[in-house]
Amino acid sequence: MRILLLTIFLSLFSISAMAAESLTVSSPDGKLMVKIDNEQGKVFYSVIYNNTTMVERSALGLKSDIADFSSNLTLKNVEQSQIDEHYTLRTAKRSQVHYTANQLNLTYESGQRHQMVITFNVANNDVAFRYSFPQIGERACMVVSGEQTSFRLPEQTTTFLTPQANAMSGWKRTKPSYEEEYKADAAMGDKSQYGNGYTFPCLFRVGDQGWVLISETGTNGAYVGCHLSDYSAEEGYRIAFPMEGEANGIGSTSAGVRLPGATPWRTITVGQTLKPIVETTVAFDVVKPLYEPSEEYDCGRYTWSWIVWQDNSINYDDQVKFIDLASAMGYEYCLVDCNWDRNIGREKIEQLAAYAKTKSVGLMLWYNSNGYENDAPQGPKGGMDTAINRKREMAWLKKMGVKGIKVDFFGGDKQHTMQLYEDILSDANDYGIQVIFHGCTLPRGWERMYPNYLSSEAVIASEQVIFTTHHAEQQPFELTMHPFCRNSVATMDWGGVIMNKYLSRDNKSRHARRTTDIFEMASGIMNQTAMQCVSMCPNNLTDIPQFEVEWLKQLQTRWDETLFIDGYPGKYAVLARRSGERWYVVGLNALKEPLKLTLDLDMFAGQQVSVYCDKPLKEGEKFAQAELKSDKVNAKGELKVVIQPNGGLIVQR
Ligand code: CA
Questions:
Q1: Are residues 38 and 118 in the same domain?
Q2: Can you tell me the mean pLDDT for 487-498?
Q3: Of 64, 127, 146, 289, which residue is most buried, by most CB within 10 angstroms?
Q4: Same domain, 469 and 589
Q5: pLDDT tens by residue, 331-369
Q6: Residue 74: beta bridge partners?
Q7: Last residue of a domain, which of 558, 591, 623?
């Protein structure tokens, strides 16, 4: 890491002379600029890209028990530096990152002479900013009750947002858990579904000028998880704190900050196209690993009986079937879902883990996070809520050779809940265990912060496709939305490439899957998570075409690089991901018509490629047939393709 520090100490005279003027900081390529100004003690910023305003003059600052850091502010010091850092990621969309940005640190003094530093990092397509505070006299801590921080988008902006749920709503009062529907191209003035604003990340289309993705990163037990308020014409969207009722009403909505301390980073990714939105690494660029891995962790694919076979499959014999399936597919893991403590029992789970080992499959086990935060009845309960319980449980898991856990049903975004995620991760690392969260908050930079963190749900996931025909119908829309927002800022455990035609154990009853086989297979690459769930059933080994089984066996989950190729949120998406030397191009179509595209695939220029696609539905046919073709990408790197409605595309060598 190389940091060039260029400090400009301004004399008091020059600061007062420039009080009404604006300061600017630009990206290394000079195209992205943040302008900060101070008017009558209030601080504002705006974001300009290629001379076009993408975020209009918006408020900065917060309110604390020590001082009001949102008004009466005087600029005292300005420091500029350059950041040039290389780092690696294990579980995200890219493995090697070169982060360069210009940093501006602005020190303000409140009316009561307390200091706040606002830091802006400006990279070529990303702005990140945060507030930090020195120790103030004898005060070693402070309470932040709310923020002024806002985001005012230009008036032509349309929105791609998902609402914040009501506290203690949903299944056994487990919400909010970031499992709400997205709306595409909505008006800014629309009220959010529940009147609670929107959860991160928030995607905006600024007319023909481009795209803006707003999120936050670096959140752990040192702050609350925030979201965006509803829109108001004057303020735009404001940073909103957790709601009173979250976690069964226990715990404050305020944030306690140890001094010196800082807020999480707020991030704004900007592009004329969707390319910077899909490819951004800003969620990881501005955070740091918080501890060392206790061992070298691996990732891979896992089978999961619960999603299609549901609760009744959590018994010894059915789990053996899914361990055997993982083994037949060459997959590394099998996840045993909820209620294994009751339906299999601890003794038999030890036997099951031993059996899995003979098949070279690792077991992962489900846990309830409870706690007092909701009524989720599934067991095992009381294994993850306190350090004493966790260490006892994790020592047992380690003894059995269990390498991963999935912890479900958290209680919102209050500070003590954000601490619980961190405590589970930290303790798990001591026992060589990796962690997936479900029923949970958005992970905010955790892929880099916690070396044994794997993935999170925080999305309307495959379970909803199983539960309702509505969500089965919405699946193509949802999965062509996430590459541009939810999955752009964090790994996403959608929970399954589903290959049964009907969403039932007998593969005949209940509703039919709306997506094609190639759609499902392509989703295994489109939905980025380094621990990928393949929700196929044992019958799929023989009842789907053999070339599909063979493709699923070689499904990659770790990516060195990710590129945007084409798409529009909620309509279609085409991405390329590279693993080592090999590129995989995948596409999904949520439109009602076949989608004809000429793709720019430089990585395959002049080469013969394998193309997995769907045949058009024939008269009277209910499910599209899949086909595997060979095609040649021309010397310019162009390939003409057709993606069928609710269908997919995979191009590889
Ligand atoms: Ca869930």
A1: yes
A2: 97
A3: 127
A4: no
A5: 999 999 999 999 999 999 999 999 999 999 999 999 999
A6: 109
A7: 558
Among residues 575, 579, 583, the alpha carbon closest in space to that of 560 is found at: 579
In the predicted model, is pLDDT for residue 652 greater than 80?
yes
Residue 623, domain CATH? 2.60.40.1180
| Dist. CA 303 → ligand 1 center (Å) | 17
Residues 6+ apart with CB under 8 A from 373: 247, 248, 250, 409, 410, 411, 412, 417
Assigned token pair, 45: 């910023």
**pTM of the complete model:** 0.96
Q: Name the least confident of 18-27, 316-325, 446-455.
A: 18-27
Domain that holds residue 623: 583-652
Question: Can you give the CATH number for the domain in which 375 is found?
Answer: 3.20.20.70
Which CATH number goes with the domain that contains 213? 2.70.98.10
Does 576 fall in a domain?
no
Give me ligand 1 centre to Cα 439, in Å: 5
Q: Is residue 214 part of a domain?
A: yes
* Cα(493) to centroid(ligand 1), Å: 10
Q: How far is the CA of 11 from the centre of ligand 1 (A)?
A: 55
CA of 309 from ligand 1 middle (Å) equals 16
pLDDT of 647 above 60: yes
Interval 186-202 mean pLDDT: 97
| In the predicted structure, residue 557 carries a pLDDT above the cut 60 | yes
Question: Residue 113 Cα, ligand 1 centroid: separation in angstroms?
Answer: 47
- Number of independent structural domains in the chain: 3
Distance 57 CA to ligand 1 centre (A): 38
Q: Is residue 577 part of a domain?
A: no
533 and 587 housed in the same domain: no
Q: How far is the CA of 215 from the centre of ligand 1 (A)?
A: 21
622 contacts: CB under 8 Å, gap ≥ 6: 512
pLDDT tens for each residue of 137-184: 788 999 999 999 999 999 999 999 999 999 999 999 999 999 999 999
The helix/strand/coil state of 127 is strand
Total residue length of the chain = 653
* 331 CA distance to ligand 1 middle (Å): 23
Q: What local confidence, expressed as pLDDT, does residue 1 receive?
A: 38
Question: Does 306 lie in the same domain as 277?
Answer: no
| CB distance 193 to 263 below 8 Å | no
Residue 26 included in any domain:
yes
Rounded Cα distance, 368 and 454, in Å: 17
378 CA distance to ligand 1 centroid (A)?
13
Same-domain status, 195 and 245: yes
- Answer yes or no: do 274 and 318 share one domain: no
Do 161 and 307 have their domain in common?
no
Say how many Å lie between the CA of residue 174 and the centre of ligand 1. Answer: 9
Average per-residue pLDDT for the chain: 95
Do both 518 and 477 map to the same domain? yes
Residue 95: partners with Cβ closer than 8 Å, 6 or more residues away: 88, 89, 558, 559, 560, 561
